[in-house]
Amino acid sequence: MPSDREQKPSRTERANQERAAKSGGSAPQGESRAASIARAKAKRAAKESSSGSAISTASSGEGTRSRSVERIQERQQQRRRQQITIAAISAAVVIGLIVLAVLVVNAPAEAPIPVTAARYEGLSQSRTEDGYPRLGDPRAPIQVGLYSSFDCPACQVFHEDSMSDLIERVREGSISVTFVPLSGTGSITNGRGAAVAAVCAAEQNQFWQMHDTLFSWTPIYGNQSFTNNRILTAVRELGLDVGAFNGCAAGNSASEILTRAQNQSRTLTNFTGTPTITINGVVPLNDEGVPLTDPIDILAELDERIQAVQARNAAEATAEATAEATAEPVVEVTEEPAAEPTAEATP
Fold first, then answer.
1. Contacts of 203 (CB under 8 A, 6+ apart)
2. Is residue 113 domain-resident?
3. pLDDT, tens only, 314-334
């Protein structure tokens, strides 16, 4: 029969068994106290080792996430640096283009002055009441009006083909020529700027020289004919006062003249576009009632009218001479003085 010690474990053994049960296991039956303590320590060490491994794993995970965040931040910083670099380069390019554009715009442009500008020397240059430039004697019997535009290719052709012949008739005193400045009737850029330049040149008695210059450019430079720097170069080449010219161009007087010309062209009978020619204020027509625009036809019409004027003047002069020659002479009667009475002799 077992002894009471074998049947009933001691209080210490029971306490060890309870601790072993709580730690996940139970002490074997009859295990010594030392063995039980050793086994508990071993389990405790295993548990601590497992906990440390978990902590190490967590730390490793956190380190991996930290490195990922750092790489993302580095890439973001790199992109920002690239964007700043690209923005700086773009800004530098834009600034360079602006500077280049300013230099190109302000650089003196080629502005040749044609030799024909000298053909106006000695001719009367004035302006009408409307401010239109006039060449020749304002009292000439035949007044020619040129409704024309510098941006109009057909006007340039008419100018080339007829201006010399018109000037010849102006020098003879047969006609005067008035230029009615229009713009926007052709395809060349900045026609209004050219018209303003010509009107402002008229204020310094240089309209016709500027007029020839502007028309001479269009076959050479096309749409680049009337750039501001080219016009300003011509102003200097013609010897105009640049300050006065700029003041005129910036003011209202030139624009008012151009507006007046535009309005008059709209109300002119038989006006069909530029160029349109008037003779004594009327558009000449052919036999079919079509306005004359060909330089040859215009010059022929002018010569016919000039001859008619000359014939009329000659007839008037002949009539005056004939009247003077055939007039009866007026005889003046001179009274002789009365004879003084003679005294009679006294015997």
1. 244, 248
2. no
3. 998 888 888 877 766 655 655
